[in-house]
Amino acid sequence: MDWRSRRIPNWLTGPGLLLGAILNTVFGGWTGLKASLLGAGLGLALLLPFVLLRALGAGDWKLAGAIGAFVGPGTLLDLLVGSVFVAGVMALALVIYKGRFLQTMRNIGHILVSLVTFRLPGTQVSLDNPESLKVPYGVALGVTVMLYGATHLWRG
User: Contact at 8 Å (CB) between 24 and 70?
Assistant: First the structure.
């Protein structure tokens, strides 16, 4: 859904968070519930600033919380770091495909200046800009989860 419509519905993320907490409780008791809640809370806490800055959608944020409820805080950190790299590869491919490399470099410059001067970047580098290229972060996170799972299955 995120690939086509850039939306991750609440009917998926809400029950996903709840199911992750239930399964962790069933299989791990109170320790499992604690890990599940810590994972969900960590995912929501780490990505909230990006949602508030309009650099990430709320559906992506809630998806990270739901995944955290399934995997706990330690694995979630691995997944979030991995998803940054997957999203970066996706973004590079999109920028090259759309022929927007120079504009992207200018936008990165705006962001870096904003960081150094402690100011928010302009609307040209926000999700609110209809001209901006957008990578579906939920897809990047999903691909990362699949790669992580495949890697762990491969290792046995």
Answer: yes
Question: What's at 73, amino acid-wise?
Answer: P
The total number of residues shown for the chain amounts to 156
Residue spans of the domains in the chain: they are 2-155
Residue 132 burial class via C-beta count within 10 angstroms: exposed 0-12, middle 13-18, buried 19 and up: middle
Contact of 3 with 136, CB cutoff 8 Å? yes
In the chain, DSSP finds a helix count (H) and a strand count (E) of 5, 0
Q: Give, for all 156 residues of the chain, the pLDDT tens digit.
A: 777 878 899 899 999 999 999 999 999 999 999 999 999 999 999 999 999 988 889 999 999 999 999 999 999 999 999 999 999 999 999 999 999 988 888 878 877 888 888 777 666 665 566 677 788 999 999 999 999 999 989 987
Distance of CA 107 to the CA centre of its chain: 21
Q: Which tokens in the block code for residue 155?
A: 């290792």
